[in-house]
DNA sequence: CTTAGGG
DNA sequence: CCCTAAG
């Protein structure tokens, strides 16, 4: 449990981070500034006690603060705000708007609007849910449940001396960051404002700019910001003294009014000068924020019309790591129906039902670089263990039948194999050896494929016929043909396993290989494998190549001795008949001298028999 | 993925 | 056989 929480407290020190307070126009109410409520970072330890935040944590927060500041600065630089000195500037604001009016109603806005609105609206739906949550959290945290009782008259308990502070403090604290709060005074009819004006107002409300061009969204946001309420009519936006006045039925609006103010004030001091509860703020910030997070998504929905917003916003705002919640949400969405539009799913989550629990969780699933890590949740013994989910599949190796493997290697293999199997996705019997690559270290090795049941039966038939055919050539046992197949991992003295399985080449195989080479040419291993070795699931092209290499070597080594070697040498498991070696040599020479292209005119030096034999089917 | 080569 | 570097 290392949840970071903000704890209200009077901490002047933190003010250093808010230059806004001292410089700039004289605070209208020095007292408030002297006694602001500031968030202090602490960490709640398991037992409930709190310890000071670590440097790192503080840094993080400061980062955020800076973030915000940097965001605010541009606002100041625009010089649009003529200072927020006094509270009675509303009129001038009006005029200001009028003056700078003109291009506000550019057509693009409206065309763009439709798209934008779509998305943003959706976002809002969702966000609202979050807001509700947050509000509740706040309510419970401050325990006096004031949020829920608008007219309780318990203002005195407000550490900031009552409701009035709401405005004065805000304007005071934020004086320097220039949001023109005067604009927020008195009656505001958002409906009458142009997009540009809305932007102004937005700025004034939140102390930052927005690039959203959706009037509806702006109005809603502003309304929410000003009233600290998330329950904003979607149609009418008349705000008087921080109260939304719904057209027709005024007071009926269930706004939280100033009650939330105290909460929001705390939040305000901390970060943004807007009168928005901080949690709320984080959740419903610009859609761009959200989109930023959403960006992690491959097929993010903001790809078209809102694209510019993203980029624009991103340049201005540092990208924050998506919270775990987002990751979860996204993955959910992604896995379910995500294919570019997450509208519907978002809509769903828009219901207030979303569990508050989920978003308090620490961000653990993300590496420090913000890159989500693909893991597999294994519930082992109650604790969630995340296993890096490796899934390597053998390229085109022998068919490894895991069942057989497990049978053959009872001991350590059992468990390991099982695990591996699970991790690999059972169905694929071609398991990449690489998984076991660590054989020397891991201590266990893959099993030989030998005992393949069905597949092999099938090919054993073919094999059988071949055997007969081969039987003459070699004096091999036709019965135990496969019995010796298994040359399991050879346990080396060190306990580490050596080599996988050694499958001795049978004479028939060799013949086939030679034949194949004769037919398709040296180096066409894949072809030979495909055509001549179709029935041998093991024996990859590489194997063929290797074998050929060996044959070649042998053939040349033996040639001088000719047939004599047959018995001379050490007992080779499958002594290769001289004729074959001879063929090999011939083939080798042919192939060497005659680049693949030429047809047949260049082989005078070889006896016809061989050549013909060799080339049978070739020409 | 397929080849070639080294190990 | 394994592993890898190269097309």
TrEMBL record:
Domain Myb-like positions: 504-552
Gene Ontology cellular component list: nucleus
Superkingdom field: Eukaryota
Biased composition annotated in UniProt, kind: Polar residues: 346-357
Gene3D superfamilies linked to this entry: 1.10.246.220
Localization per record: Nucleus
Iron listed as a keyword: no
Residues annotated as domain HTH myb-type: 497-556
InterPro entries xref list: Homeodomain-like_sf, Myb_dom, SANT/Myb
Record's compositionally biased regions (Basic and acidic residues): 452-468
Primary subcellular site in the record, as a coarse category: nucleus
Keywords tagged on the record: Nucleus
Region Disordered, residue ranges: 1-33, 92-116, 346-380, 446-468
Name of protein: Telomere repeat-binding protein
Organism in which the protein naturally occurs: Actinidia chinensis var. chinensis (Chinese soft-hair kiwi)
């Amino acid at each position: 449990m290392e949840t970071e929480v903000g704890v209200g407290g009077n901490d002047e020190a933190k003010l250093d981070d808010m230059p806004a307070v001292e410089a700039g126009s004289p605070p209208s109410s020095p007292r408030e500034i002297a006694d602001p409520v500031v968030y202090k970072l602490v960490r709640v330890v398991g037992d409930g006690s709190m310890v000071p935040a670590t440097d790192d944590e503080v840094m993080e927060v400061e980062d955020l603060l800076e973030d915000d500041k940097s965001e605010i600065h541009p606002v100041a630089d625009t010089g649009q705000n003529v200072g927020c000195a006094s509270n009675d500037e509303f009129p001038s604001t009006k005029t200001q708007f009028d003056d700078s009016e003109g291009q506000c109603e550019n057509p693009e806005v409206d065309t763009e609007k439709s798209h934008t609105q779509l998305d943003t609206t959706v976002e809002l739906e969702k966000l609202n849910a979050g807001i509700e949550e947050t509000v509740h959290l706040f309510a419970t945290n401050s325990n006096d449940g004031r949020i829920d009782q608008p007219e309780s008259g318990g203002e005195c308990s407000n550490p900031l001396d009552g409701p009035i502070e709401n405005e004065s403090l805000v304007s005071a604290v934020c004086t320097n960051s220039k949001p023109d709060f005067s604009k927020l005074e008195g009656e505001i009819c958002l409906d009458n404002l142009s997009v540009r004006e809305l932007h102004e107002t937005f700025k004034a409300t939140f102390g930052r700019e927005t690039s959203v061009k959706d009037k509806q969204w702006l109005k809603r946001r502003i309304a929410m910001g000003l009233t600290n309420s998330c329950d904003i009519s979607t149609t009418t936006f008349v705000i008087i003294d921080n109260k939304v006045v719904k057209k027709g039925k005024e007071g009926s609006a269930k706004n939280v009014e100033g009650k939330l103010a105290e909460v929001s004030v705390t939040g305000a001091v901390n970060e943004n000068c807007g009168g928005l509860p901080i949690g709320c703020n984080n959740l419903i910030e610009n859609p761009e924020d959200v989109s930023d997070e959403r960006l992690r998504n491959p097929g993010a929905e903001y790809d078209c019309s809102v694209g510019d917003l993203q980029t624009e916003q991103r340049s201005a705002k540092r990208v924050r790591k998506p919270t775990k919640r987002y990751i979860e949400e996204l993955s959910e969405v992604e896995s379910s129906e995500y294919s570019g539009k997450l509208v519907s799913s978002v809509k769903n989550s828009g219901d207030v039902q979303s569990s508050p629990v989920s978003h308090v969780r620490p961000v653990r699933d993300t590496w420090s670089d913000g890159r989500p890590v693909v893991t597999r949740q294994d519930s082992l013994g109650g604790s969630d263990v995340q296993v890096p989910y490796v899934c390597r599949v053998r390229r085109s190796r022998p068919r490894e039948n895991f069942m057989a493997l497990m049978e053959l290697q009872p001991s350590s293999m059992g468990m390991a194999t099982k695990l591996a199997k699970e991790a690999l996705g059972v169905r694929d019997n071609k398991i990449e050896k690489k998984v076991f690559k660590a054989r020397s270290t891991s201590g266990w090795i893959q099993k030989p494929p030998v005992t393949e049941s069905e597949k092999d039966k099938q090919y054993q038939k073919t094999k059988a016929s071949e055997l007969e055919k081969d039987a003459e050539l070699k004096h091999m046992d036709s019965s135990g043909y496969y019995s010796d197949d298994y040359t399991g991992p050879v346990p080396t003295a060190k306990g580490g396993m050596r080599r996988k399985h050694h499958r001795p080449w049978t004479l028939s195989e060799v013949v086939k290989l030679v034949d194949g080479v004769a037919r398709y040419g040296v180096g066409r291993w894949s072809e030979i494998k495909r055509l001549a070795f179709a029935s041998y699931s093991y024996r990859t092209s590489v194997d063929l190549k290797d074998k050929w290499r060996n044959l070649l070597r042998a053939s040349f080594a033996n040639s001088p001795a000719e047939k004599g070697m047959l018995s001379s040498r050490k007992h080779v498991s499958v002594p290769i008949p001289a004729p074959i070696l001879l063929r090999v040599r011939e083939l080798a020479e042919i192939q060497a001298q005659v680049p693949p292209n030429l047809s047949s005119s260049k082989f005078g030096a070889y006896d016809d028999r061989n050549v013909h034999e060799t080339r049978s089917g070739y020409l």
